[in-house]
Target: PTS system fructose-specific transporter subunit IIBC
Amino acid sequence: MRFLLGAILGGMMCTDMGGPVNKAAYAFGVGLLSTQTYGPMAAIMAAGMVPPLAMGLATMVARRKFDKAQQEGGKAALVLGLCFISEGAIPFAARDPMRVLPCCIVGGALTGAISMAIGAKLMAPHGGLFVLLIPGAITPVLGYLVAIIAGTLVAGLAYAFLKRPEVDAVAKAA
Model:
């Protein structure tokens, strides 16, 4: 049952990337920290990193489908994703919501489910992967990273496959 909670929280984190659904999931996780319940926060932060990391990955894998500005935005999204700033994916979602959002929600749900299934715990409410620098703040580290990588790969590769080439990018490639 833990994996189901993780999938729900992970999907919520990726639904509106910084909007009210995302913030409701985040507030739930932060509230549980005060009761020393650390599993949901791990799933929430891991899944919240997926959208920007996935968009960054997609811009690298399917470079020809993105114009130059989007490629640069993908680089910035990678950095924001590592910092647990989900909003790095908003420009991509605003431009192509029917493809970006489902990919990110599925990837985030997978990340959250894996995180909860392996019993990951996070004792900090923010910080992205930089929390790894605090000894014992994330456990188990390897499983937590696998969860983030799995969701990022699913979301990023799915979007790279589904993304239609930008007209400018196609014209320049010809």
Notes: The first helix runs from residue 2 to 15. The mean pLDDT is 95.
